Amino acid sequence: MSQLLIAVALMLLLALLLGAILGYASVRFRVKADPLVDKIDAILPQTQCGQCSHPGCRPYAEALAAGSDDINKCPPGGEDGIRKLAELLGVEFKPFGADAPQPKAKAVALIDEATCIGCTLCIQACPVDAILGAAKQMHTVIASECTGCELCLAPCPVDCIRMIPPGSELTNWKWRYPTIPIRNVSSGATR
Amino acid sequence: MMPLFDFPGGIHPPENKAQSSATPIRQAPLPPQLHVALRQSMGNAARPCVAIGDRVAKGQLIASADGRLSAAVHAPTSGVVSAIAPQPFAHPSGLPELAITLDSDGEERWIERQPLHDWQQRSGAKIRDFLAQMGIVGLGGAVFPSHLKLGLKLGVSPLETLVINGAECEPYISCDDRLMRERADAICDGIAVTRHALQARQVLIGIEDNKPQAIAAMQAAAAAHGFGVVAVPTKYPSGGAKQLIRILTGKAIPHGVRATEHGVQCFNVATVYAIGRAVLHGEPLISRIVTLTGAVEAAANVEALIGTPLDQLLALVRPHRDSHEVVMGGPLMGFTLPDLAAGLTKAGNCLLVKSPALFPPRPPAQACIRCGDCASACPVSLQPMDLFWFAKAKNFDKAQQWQLFDCIECGACSYVCPSQIPLVDYYRFAKSEIWAAERDKNAANLARQRHEFRQFRLQRDKAEKAQRLADKAAQAAARQAASHSAAANVAPASDPKQAAIAAAMARAAAQREAAPLPEQHSSGLNDAKQAAIAAAMARAAARKAAADEAKAASGQPPAPPPSSSGLDDAKQAAIAAAMARAAARKAAADQARANQQPDP
Ligand code: SF4
Ligand code: SF4
Ligand code: SF4
Ligand code: SF4
């Protein structure tokens, strides 16, 4: 009988001890931010363009985490991005809507420096502070920081900003997918 | 006889070296114009340090290294800089690269050469710096700057074994073979310098046993220095650095680990030759030996200046009429040159002319039959058929898990594949896709940081503006109170008190105004950012307190400038917060003292 009591007491003690440790750990090591939002945000391309109708990628990530928006709203992420989101969130892949903005090739903004009047409107629009300039001074885009969000195009009163494809260089050149060269066999194939 | 080790896999393709190795090294004629590309190593292209129209001497520095992995570039001959512009470049992309075009004056007038005569008394670091100035890069093909290989932190100090790579395992190429036969003494001088710089205990020179003359010449030259010359069995790719180290020392260097950590370092024979020329003769790397072979009349090895247009080099050996493409490097690892107007680079060990007769086109690829031949040929013990499958399906994560980046692109697997699958093309494709994804990821991280910082900056500006307004209001209130009290003849001691009350009210108002902001965007900002905002507000509050009690708060530190780089935000914010806290505390204490003093 006493053995039973000892066993029960021991178990109780152990349970209390472990419970206390767990309770302490859950307070001490609490994960503050919502990890799902971070995970989604890591997939989003950070173009910060607002095409998803959220004021930036993070708010879209929050909306996705809350389940209040669809996964096919981010054109800069491309279909690849949708696929990754679908995988992370455990939902079906969903193509871009037919009348929604479609993905396009990445480009960077270029300010025509001769036309720029130095109004600073584009600086205020740029979500990543990629434009350098000051009032009544010529402005310029730091190409390596530009995400290609196009938010600076509309505010420019003299329409001197345009998007150009980023230059092809050795540092960003890629090997092509191996394909079988197509040979013209029409002369031999007629027989 | 020391024991030799073996590496897994490997193949025995036809050697085809005799065509070019029979005749001595010839001097290529001086070209009228040279295109010296600025990208002569891994890493950044060098930065030109001459201007168009400048007259330069042979061996003069014309572009200096830009960053760690970059290498300096020197004028291969004397002449006039006629252009600094993009030129065709020896690279599979066919993209032009910035090059310095030099019109040679035919004088070959050297700059004053400054050898490092007392290298034996110099430290490894000094020799390393000297080689960096001389633009020495690995001439085996990877063009890794040599001084970095001397400078790596030694895991086992001093270095146990210095391996000199004279294996030259790829078919057709014979430039190292001829170099060893003809200039063995100079190579050994270079080895001696390298050994001194690395403080290596022993030197092993590995040469494939299909080059008996080179072995004999090197043995004769190395005997005086006490270097070991080892004939290694002919098997491709024994000339891979890790493979040769494995053969000679039995050490398998895992991926991502530097050979020095295992007490070994490996240099190509042509590289140590260049090191010797630089240190003993003061000659920077401005020429190299190139094998010109394949579908040509008279295959040969020529010593050519860097920047010599490749078509002029090829003209020396008269390519066959039916030749249709030229490969730089060997048949297994080389790439097809997109434009023969490009200048010779430091990486150009061989120009292989291909003709349909000599190199019949590869039959169309069939499906993989999973025969496993590729796996047994792979020198790194990978599973090429699986890598191929993942690369083809663009399943890059999986390819990386299966050690895609251990692949040395030796081409052994493509060579043996009975289905004629161009396996290496798939690996190159997959690797460059993975690198591109990595770049995108970094760009996204940067954009995220900059966006968050911008958000923080906007809020900070807003908070500071609100604070300024509150300050003004407080001052106005204080003035009003002062005039009021003066008019009412109240004791002057209450003045500061009333001002303090007014200030506190203004502060509270400002806090009310500013407080909702962080909450509103709290999700977008991490703790560090919030701390920074709090710090900015605390700073503003401290400034205000200081303004109220101007004489008491003389010890307030200047507010640190807001960090502009997103990286150090956390640290800087923490420091700023701590400083602001301290300042606020001090100001409060001073204020309390100031308030106390008039009371008694
Ligand atoms: S649409 Fe633009 S703002 Fe929205 S998640 Fe994509 S990149 Fe970010
Ligand atoms: S410069 Fe223009 S396109 Fe580029 S990130 Fe800024 S607002 Fe977007
Ligand atoms: S050698 Fe070719 S066919 Fe055989 S398993 Fe490898 S890839 Fe497949
Ligand atoms: S190319 Fe890569 S996978 Fe193929 S045999 Fe060589 S190391 Fe192995």
Automatic annotation (TrEMBL), chain A:
[4Fe-4S] cluster 2 binds at residues 116, 119, 122, 156. Residues 107-136, 137-166 form the 4Fe-4S ferredoxin-type domain. Residues 32-91 form the 4Fe-4S domain. It is found in: Cell inner membrane. Its EC number is 7.-.-.-. Pfam families: Fer4_21, FeS. The keyword Cell inner membrane applies. It is an enzyme of class 7 (translocase). Gene3D superfamilies: 3.30.70.20, Electron transport complex subunit B, putative Fe-S cluster (1.10.15.40). Keywords: 4Fe-4S, Cell inner membrane, Cell membrane, Electron transport, Iron, Iron-sulfur, Membrane, Metal-binding, Repeat, Translocase, Transport. [4Fe-4S] cluster 1 binds at residues 49, 52, 57, 74. Part of a membrane-bound complex that couples electron transfer with translocation of ions across the membrane. NCBIfam families: PRK05113.1 (NF003475), rnfB (TIGR01944). The complex is composed of six subunits: RnfA, RnfB, RnfC, RnfD, RnfE and RnfG. Belongs to the 4Fe4S bacterial-type ferredoxin family. RnfB subfamily. This is Ion-translocating oxidoreductase complex subunit B. It comes from Vogesella alkaliphila.
Automatic annotation (TrEMBL), chain B:
It comes from the Bacteria. Coiled coil: none annotated. Residues 572-594 have a biased composition (Low complexity). Belongs to the 4Fe4S bacterial-type ferredoxin family. RnfC subfamily. Its cofactor is [4Fe-4S] cluster. It is found in: Cell inner membrane. NCBIfam families: PRK05035.1 (NF003454), rnfC (TIGR01945). Residues 359-388, 398-427 form the 4Fe-4S ferredoxin-type domain. This is Ion-translocating oxidoreductase complex subunit C.
